[in-house]
From TrEMBL:
GO terms for cellular component: endomembrane system. GO terms for molecular function: amidase activity. The keyword Nuclease does not apply. Its EC number is 3.5.1.4. Coiled coil: none annotated. The lineage of its organism: Bacteria, Pseudomonadati, Pseudomonadota, Betaproteobacteria, Burkholderiales. It comes from the Bacteria. This is Amidase. InterPro entries: Amidase_dom (IPR023631), AS_sf (IPR036928), FAAH2 (IPR052739). Transmembrane segments: none annotated.
Length: 504
């Protein structure tokens, strides 16, 4: 039985483009098969249809987006061609967009209206992107869930009772729901990769220092780069990650006067050529059922493609960095980088007071980090740079390191306070146990400390029908290698899956 909508060629094309890549949408615009105005209105219609419940796009300027779409159509008619000309996108709330508020979910900054675009947003706008608005985050970008007093709660399209992750949770939800094909996020503790894992999209944490964060966060006017933090893209295809990354490079007007980043090509163009080290169990812990599923699935696919997969037991002694010591160091530098460290709970203060002087655990590092003297920070920084060189030696033997992203798929909303004392149910071979919030960051933190690039890529669904992902970690400044690895797996086995009920 036909319907007017299905019989309308324009509607059929727009529906076909709903879950297309940004590159495919840009090609359709450049070829004149669709107009920027029509593509934008299609995106806005989906937001109107789904976002009262999902609450992903929380800062909106649809009138400005419509003006930009009309300008894009005029430019296309003149023959202009830019990588994202006329493509609608959203960006994470923490990035300044001229005329919109940047609050990071903090009511104290609810009136912090940006006067100009951040450098990263400006790069995407110059490439022709039509910016619809901004997507939700947790308070201070410091949670695995995305809710706050300013904008409320964002839900996961796969299950409304579950989180899409944080801190780029609204970003991932907007992609999975088919609002836009490209998003701009940031990552210091998995804030791109964990939401990508929870919603079944792709996310890339660039090498540290490649993408400017100028014009993001609060308070406004910050000129220095925040330690460990990076900006990077989320998308529904691996190829879009590379497209966006190329646009985001070399935006700082001070450094670009003298030098420019030119990333080396991917090490290989065929999966069988990749040398892959797989890590499936964090030292000193038991592997969760979700971690086992993820690694078994990716290993099976790699071996089917002729890839030789190595395990830590195959390595010479000392080649793999000490992950436990590295994680404690990550906790030290992460905690000491917080511009506004959280007020510790009474239990945390008691634990801090009871710490033994020789305690080198990750918990001790996290408790002590906000009070670190600068001379001690410098010692930790020296250890960080030594670790980067150790990873570089490992990457002479391997091209990518594949790990889980988190110990579970998307979990149910949990707003218990204080946040650091939350626990979440995780299934293991011997049953379900509660795992602390602080123990969710082992895999996510692994590439952050040495500043390595890491690409989160979907691997289908688990037994509960939720998306799961792995991450490919690459050598410093060789971002194209893990993206290419994810892209080749996507070509062979597929990638993003549309959540039930969100089809065009």
């Amino acid at each position: 039985m036909s319907t007017p909508e299905l019989d309308d060629p324009k509607s059929a094309l727009l529906n076909a483009l709903t879950f297309a890549s940004a590159k495919q949408q840009a090609d359709a615009l450049a070829e004149g098969r669709v107009s920027a105005v029509d593509l934008l209105e299609h995106s806005l219609a989906r937001i109107a249809r789904f976002d009262d419940i999902l609450n992903a796009v929380v800062a909106r300027d649809f009138d400005a987006a419509r003006n930009a779409a009309r300008e894009a159509d005029a430019a296309l008619t003149r023959g202009e061609r830019r990588p994202l000309l006329g493509v609608p996108i959203t960006v994470k709330e923490s990035f300044d967009v001229a005329g919109l508020v940047t609050s990071v979910g903090n009511p104290s900054y609810a009136d912090n209206r940006a006067e100009r675009d951040s450098l990263a947003v400006a790069a995407l706008r110059e490439a022709g992107a039509v910016i619809i608005g901004k997507t939700n985050v947790p308070l201070g970008l410091a949670d695995l869930q995305s809710y706050n007093e300013v904008y409320g709660l964002t839900r996961n399209p796969w299950d409304l009772e579950r989180t899409p992750g944080g801190s780029s949770g609204g970003s991932a939800a907007a992609l999975a729901a088919g609002y836009v094909a490209l998003e701009l996020g940031s990552d210091i503790g998995g804030s791109i990769r964990i939401p990508a894992h929870f919603t079944g999209v792709f996310g890339h944490k660039p090498s540290y220092g490649l993408v400017s964060l100028t014009g993001s966060g609060v308070p406004r006017g910050r000129a220095s780069a925040r330690d460990l933090s990076v900006a990077g893209p989320l998308a529904r295809s691996a190829a879009d990650l590379e497209l966006a990354l190329d646009l985001l490079l070399n935006r700082d007007p001070l450094t670009s006067k003298a030098w420019r980043a030119t990333l080396p090509p991917a090490r290989h163009t065929r999966l069988a050529e990749f040398r892959v080290l797989v890590l499936d169990t964090w030292p000193g812990t038991q592997r969760s059922l979700s971690e086992r599923l993820v690694i078994e699935r990716v290993v099976e696919r790699l071996r089917t493609q002729g890839v030789y997969v190595s395990r830590p037991a195959d390595l010479p002694q000392g080649l793999l960095p000490d992950l436990v010591r590295a994680h404690a160091l990550y906790r030290t530098l992460l905690g000491s980088s917080l511009a506004e460290p959280p007020v510790p709970s009474e239990a945390a203060r008691q634990r801090l007071a009871a710490l033994a002087p020789a305690d080198e655990s990750a918990d001790a590092a996290w408790l002590s980090a906000p009070y670190l003297a600068h001379r001690d920070w410098l010692k930790a920084d020296e250890q960080r740079h030594a670790l980067r060189h150790q990873w570089e030696r490992l990457f002479k033997a391997f091209d990518v390191i594949v790990t889980p992203v988190a110990p579970v798929a998307a979990f149910r909303h949990n707003h218990q306070e204080p946040k650091d004392e939350r626990t979440y149910p995780v299934a293991f071979d011997d049953g379900v146990r509660e795992v602390r919030f602080l123990d969710f960051f082992h895999w996510a933190g692994l590439p952050v400390l040495p500043g390595l690039p890491a690409t989160s890529f979907p691997l289908g669904l688990d037994d509960d029908g939720l998306p799961v992902s792995a991450q490919a970690v690459g050598p410093w400044l060789e971002d194209r290698t893990p993206i290419a690895f994810a892209h080749l797996l996507e070509q062979a086995y597929g990638g993003f899956v549309v959540p039930p009920g969100y089809g065009a």
